[in-house]
Specification:
- The complex is a heterodimer of chains A (about 450) and B (about 290).
- Chain A is of the alpha/beta class.
- Chain A contains 16 helices and eight strands.
- Chain A folds into two domains: about 180 residues, Rossmann fold (3-Layer(aba) Sandwich); about 240 residues, Rossmann fold (3-Layer(aba) Sandwich).
- In chain A, helix 4 links the parallel strand 1 and strand 2.
- Chain A is globular and about 65 Å long.
- With about 290 residues, chain B is an alpha/beta fold.
- Chain B has a five-stranded mixed β-sheet with strand order 3-2-1-4-5. In chain B, strands 8-7-6-9-10 form a five-stranded mixed β-sheet, with helices on both faces.
- In chain B, helix 2 packs across helix 8, helix 3 packs parallel to helix 5 and helix 6 crosses helix 7.
- The longest helix of chain B has 21 residues.
- About 5% of the residues of chain B have low confidence.
- The chains are: A alpha/beta (about 450), B alpha/beta (about 290).
């Protein structure tokens, strides 16, 4: 670490241990714990919730079992790699013998310390919360990191990685943001090879062909289990809520994937039993909603919980903190190392429909497909404050959806509870609108038939 | 259904609570407005009782009570509650069928709705968090200028050329107004400038709805002639102002009461009622 003024960390905060008071740290920790408990209590209070959900709850518990396990893993010499984006191949991390864990924060309180350093410049609250949690050490999992992998997708994430370097070693991945063109694949492939080399350096272990193949197999199995869970969301009365599905998807980035798959299979069995008993989540005739837009990370479940409290049910999402984590398996043609890396690179790049890419027409295509498959009646498009890319794409998506006669509502939100009632009114009106439309479109179809 | 002749809509807004009593022909029979207190439930009960007794209507003549507005949940004696967006669009639709864009400029919110076929809302937008351009904004400005809000509109119309007020934040606009007073600007010119600013803001929301259709303006600010005139000037399209702009939400809520007897086109009724009838029935009614 150099002490020069021009290069190397710390760049942003020189007295980083003394800058924040102990009192502020304690407050951030206690507020985060309180928030997590409150959100979890709301989740637990859902009607007819499967019992297996307890496992997914526990994985997300603030300072829960997962922290303890990671700590033990590290004390045995293991390395933990934090990821700041869904575009990091967990297979590679695991094949190197390290553990991957998603560290983007959904906690509200850490936004304040980040504001103190950066000034409130309308920045993305998720970026600020992730940073703030590290600044005041309020996220126990973020304290157990040996390396952070940060793909430079949007402006917020680009600088987040840079600032984070003041606290932990960060590996930035260069993302080719223009998806067309000859250099795209080459650049991204080079980045994946670079990540592989860096991971090998970190753990001191070469990534063997067999190990990688095994990891890819594990993740593909998990995706298959996820796909079977999705089938239940297609039902007329889905036995599982959208909030729980988000929780499940996000748990895969926290826990060992084999244990996750085991629990997902258990959940599948339980859902099957629930369906046979006629149990279901939400009310009968709930408006079928798709959640889209900026990432919604536990415990920032403000929008999804409002949707599901207002007579809607989230039957699908296109969030990078939800379905996109689990949406596309790695397709292997050959099993040589270079082919596997290529397949990984493809899976983590091309299906990704983050608005940081252009052209991004694949996003609307995928959304329309999900709308058809899951019988979606309306789209709730959520943008975090300062998420310019999602904000910009909203117009295009709204226009395309209107052509398909699917209404969309755009909601901007922050990491605080101040706007809950306003947003609730809008969501309720949206649900009322969908239900009125339903009555008429039903009649129209009847006439045609 | 048996012959109780009246329905009641109660709109518990952020600033004021409105009660509208309508008959089965959707005519406004009686109404009342009062500032919303900390106990909206009690307030609306008292207001309703007063309105009914003033009009000489007995409580047993009321068939249905529908609550709307931000405090709709606290009206515990209502038969049902609907959001102010649905209620307003319903009210606006019945009062003026031709309007496509329905704008509700309330105490703390500006809501624009786009009406689709048969009165169903297709799309709606609201102001985000910031209350600039709403009723409470104009109220604050009138207070700063020491003008009664009731006279503010008429005073602004007297202005020969409005000042330019650019700040879009209530607090900043207030300091701008104070500095204008210090410079010795006329009250009516400052008010006209403020009204122009509100009109521009509302017009921006109207334009974002992507329709060239006529506009319906309601909500408390619709009573302010200054804003309305400015809006007519900038909107560049037909603008319709109802007789009681402030009561549209409450009337719309009352119109939402389910009714069995055949009136005119009952197209935005409760789902259950609609399903009983065929599409052709509805279609015929719309055409009539």
């Amino acid at each position: 670490m150099s002490n020069g003024d021009t290069e190397g960390p710390p760049r942003y905060l020189k007295d980083r241990e003394e800058y924040f008071s102990d009192e502020q740290r304690e407050r951030t920790v206690s507020e985060s714990r309180k928030m997590e408990k409150r959100v979890k209590d709301d989740l637990k209070a859902q009607k007819d919730r499967p019992a297996v959900m307890k496992y997914f709850d526990d994985i997300h518990t603030y300072g829960g079992i997962r922290v303890k396990e990671l700590r033990e893993f590290r004390s045995g010499g293991g390395k933990v790699v934090g990821t700041l984006c869904v575009m990091v191949p967990f297979e590679l991390i695991n094949a190197a013998g390290a553990r991957g864990v998603g560290i983007s924060s959904g906690y509200y309180e850490p936004v304040h310390p980040a504001n103190e350093l950066l000034g409130d410049a309308g920045l993305c609250p998720m970026v600020k919360a992730t940073l703030g949690a590290k600044m005041v050490h309020s996220d126990p999992i973020a304290e157990e990191l040996d390396l952070v992998v940060s793909p430079a997708t949007c402006d917020g994430k680009l600088k987040l990685g840079e600032i984070y370097e003041d606290w932990a070693p960060v590996l930035m991945l260069n993302i080719p943001r223009v998806k067309t063109g000859d250099t795209t694949s080459k650049l991204w492939m080079g980045e994946i090879t670079y990540l592989k080399r860096k991971l090998e350096e970190l753990t001191g272990r070469r990534i063997k062909r067999k190990a990688l193949l095994k990891e890819i197999g594990k993740w593909n199995e998990a995706q298959a289990a996820w796909g079977r869970l999705l089938e239940y969301r297609r039902r007329k009365t889905p036995p599982i809520s959208g909030q729980d599905m988000l929780l499940i998807a996000q748990a895969s980035q926290k826990d060992e994937i084999t244990r996750w798959t085991k629990k997902a299979v258990e959940l599948e069995k339980e859902l099957e039993a629930m369906v046979r008993k006629g149990l279901h989540s939400g009310e009968v005739g709930a408006a079928r909603i798709m959640l889209a837009g900026s990432p919604i990370i536990y415990p920032n479940f403000k929008i999804p919980s409002l949707v599901e409290e207002s007579g809607g049910l989230i039957v699908s999402d296109e969030l990078c903190s939800g379905h996109r984590i689990m949406s596309d398996p790695v397709m292997l043609d050959e099993r040589s190392m270079s082919e596997m890396l290529m397949a990984l690179a493809e899976r983590y790049f091309f299906p990704c429909t983050c608005p940081c890419f252009s052209p991004n027409d694949d996003r609307i295509r995928r959304m329309k497909e999900s709308i058809r498959i899951f019988g979606v009646e309306g789209v709730v498009y959520h943008t975090l404050r300062g998420c310019h890319l999602n904000n910009l794409e909203a117009t295009k998506i709204e226009m395309k959806l209107r052509e398909a006669e699917i209404p969309m509502i755009k909601l901007e939100s922050e990491y605080d509870d101040g706007d809950v009632e306003q947003v609730r009114t809008r969501i309720e009106a949206f649900v009322e609108m969908i239900k009125t439309r339903r009555a008429f479109s039903g009649k129209k179809e009847g006439k045609r038939g | 259904m048996s012959g109780k002749p009246y329905d009641v809509g109660i709109d518990v807004g952020a600033i004021s609570t409105k009660v509208a009593v309508v008959d089965k022909e959707r005519r406004l029979v009686a109404h009342g407005v009062r500032l919303t207190t900390m106990e909206p439930g009690k307030l609306s009960r008292a207001l309703l009782d007063d309105v009914l007794s003033d009009a000489g209507i007995g409580g047993d003549e009321v068939q249905y009570i529908v609550a709307t507005g931000q405090g709709r949940r606290s009206v515990d004696f209502a038969n049902m509650a609907r959001t102010e967006i649905t209620a307003f669009s319903k009210g606006a639709y019945y009062l003026h069928h031709e309007s496509i864009i329905l704008v509700d400029i309330g105490g703390q919110g500006i809501r624009a709705m786009k009406r689709g076929e048969m009165g169903i809302i297709e799309d709606f937008r609201t102001n985000d968090k910031c209350s600039s351009g709403t009723g409470s904004f104009l109220d604050a400005m009138a207070t700063a200028l020491e003008v009664d809000i009731k006279d503010a509109g008429a005073l602004a119309v007297r202005s020969c050329g409005g000042e330019e007020v650019c700040a879009t934040c209530t607090v900043f606009a207030e300091s701008e107004v104070v500095s204008m007073i210090a410079k010795g600007k006329k009250k009516e010119d400052i008010l006209a400038g403020l009204d122009k600013m509100v009109a521009r803001k509302v017009n921006g929301l109207i334009n974002s709805m992507r329709s060239k259709g006529p506009v319906f303006i309601g909500g408390g600010v619709g009573e302010n002639i200054g804003v309305v005139e400015e809006l007519k000037a900038v909107a560049n399209r037909e603008v319709f102002i109802p007789e009681h702009p402030q009561l549209i939400g409450a009337m719309g809520a009352a119109f939402m009461a389910p009714r069995e007897h055949e009136g005119e086109e009952d197209v935005m009724r409760d789902e259950v009622n609609v399903k009983k009838r065929s599409f052709f029935d509805l279609f015929r009614k719309v055409r009539r």
